[in-house]
Design brief:
10 strands; binds adenosine-5'-diphosphate; alpha+beta; about 250 residues
């Protein structure tokens, strides 16, 4: 792909047909893995992400135990087949960074004080990547935590905004992320408006940054509604199953 590629045309249309304020298509499902305490599957455009939660359980390694509260230990992993060229499997600097920022974002909402010395373990698997995987992973992890019944003050919703061809855009795709000017992933606690994740890669003016936050927060609010829908569907399905079981008895 050449650097001269047009990312936003004269009419403000993006290469996948979106306007600057539109996110990609979003699909969220809760409770997809039987053997995890909680789980979720998220698709955002071409991103496909799975999150699994275990705990609260005894914290290992033990030196990480905190006598006053639980810790949230997140492991973000990108599968070798998730990108165009095969990715070298295993941990790298990028996955360590993303695991850390996602853990920290989630520690803002989990009522960790209820579980001294414990660990809440969150696994994020990127099955298919197309930019925005840290946001999709964090969105999935929040739903998986709620699905596991972990007490939280709210769920975290995440989406990126950025800039390409001089336009501030919501939810960058891979081409916009690679060839654009800036990427601003963020996450909020929707009930309070608190920002629990904010990063920036690239350059933008103060005004563009403010606009990116405005667009991103709007995207996060949309994600929040879909997260709640996914959890409602999960629990209404469970209730229906329980009713079926009692009918049979
Ligand atoms: P995010 O996925 O949160 O946007 P980055 O901005 O670091 O994180 O990465 C943007 C995109 O670049 C990823 O979603 C993925 O499509 C691609 N990418 C990241 N790391 C690799 C890698 N090691 N090999 C190939 N593609 C990668």
């Amino acid at each position: 792909m050449s650097k001269e590629m047009v990312l936003v045309d004269d009419k403000g249309k993006r290469i996948d047909g979106r306007t600057s304020e539109e996110s990609r298509e979003i699909k969220i499902e809760a409770g997809v893995l039987k053997n995890a305490d909680g789980s979720a599957y998220v698709e955002i455009g071409k991103n496909k992400v799975l999150a699994a939660v275990y705990g609260p359980r005894e914290c290992h390694p033990r030196h990480l135990q905190n006598p006053t509260k639980a810790i949230v230990q997140c492991k973000y992993n990108m599968q070798a087949y998730s990108v165009d060229d095969r990715k070298r499997p295993g941990t790298d600097r990028r996955s360590i960074e993303i695991s850390k920022i996602v853990s920290e974002a989630l520690e803002n909402v989990v009522l960790t004080g209820l579980y001294p010395r414990a660990s809440i373990d969150v696994y994020i698997e990127i099955l298919q990547a197309n930019a925005g995987t840290r946001c999709a992973g964090l969105t999935a992890a929040s739903v998986a935590l709620a699905d596991a019944g972990i007490p939280m003050k709210d769920i975290v919703a995440s989406m990126a905004a950025g800039k390409a061809d001089g336009h501030v855009l919501l939810d960058l795709n891979k081409e916009e992320d690679n060839f654009g000017e800036a990427d601003v992933p963020m996450a909020i606690v929707p009930s309070t408006g608190e920002i629990v994740l904010l990063q920036m890669d690239g350059n933008m003016t103060r005004e563009e940054f403010d606009r990116a936050i405005e667009l991103g927060v709007g995207g996060c609010k949309k994600i929040y509604e879909l997260q709640k829908d996914a959890l409602k569907r999960r629990y209404s399905a469970e209730e229906a199953e329980e009713e079926d079981d009692s009918d049979e008895q």
